[in-house]
Amino acid sequence: RDTVATLSPVLALEGGFSVPGEFAAGQFVYRVADYMPPQERTYWTTTSPSQLVAWLDGHRPSAILVSGEEPLEQPFADYARSHGYLEFPARGDGTGPVLYRSPLAPDPDE
User: Which residues pair with 86 in a beta bridge?
Assistant: First the structure.
């Protein structure tokens, strides 16, 4: 299954995607991860706002899902746009969730 980086894991799961463990708790652990003492981070599977770009660069998820409800999500959208992900808004008026899909790699046989 395709993996989705998101702070709204329920939306991704309902859409048939898998969610990496780092985002399974949604915004809750992610929001405070930069404030956790290093010894406590070993108990959590998470990333943080300061580590998001490095995580995305290292894992290159198939998609990035932004619910549009949380300003904390803006770096996800910025990353998707700056890395060539294709944007699929849920609504034509610019509100609601937006799914960014990684472009398909060219077929070497074509």
Answer: 101
CB atoms within 10 A of CB 42: 8
Name residue 45's beta-bridge partners.
none
Kindly state the tokens that stand for 35. 């404030």
DSSP E strand stretches across the chain = 4-6, 63-66, 86-89, 98-101
Give the H or E element holding residue 63: strand 63-66
Q: What digits encode the pLDDT tens for the residues 77-106?
A: 999 999 999 999 887 777 789 999 998 765
Q: How far is the C-alpha of 57 from the C-alpha of 46, rounded, in Å?
A: 15
> What is the per-residue pLDDT across 44-80, written as a single tens digit (0 to 9) for each?
888 999 999 999 999 999 999 999 888 999 999 999 9
pLDDT level of residue 39 (50, 70, 90 thresholds)? confident
47 touches 55 (CB < 8 A): yes
| Structure-block tokens of residue 16 | 């048939």
The one-letter amino acid code at 32 reads V
84-108 in b/e burial notation, b at 16+ Cβ within 10 A?
A: ebeeeeeeeeeeebbbbbbeeeeee
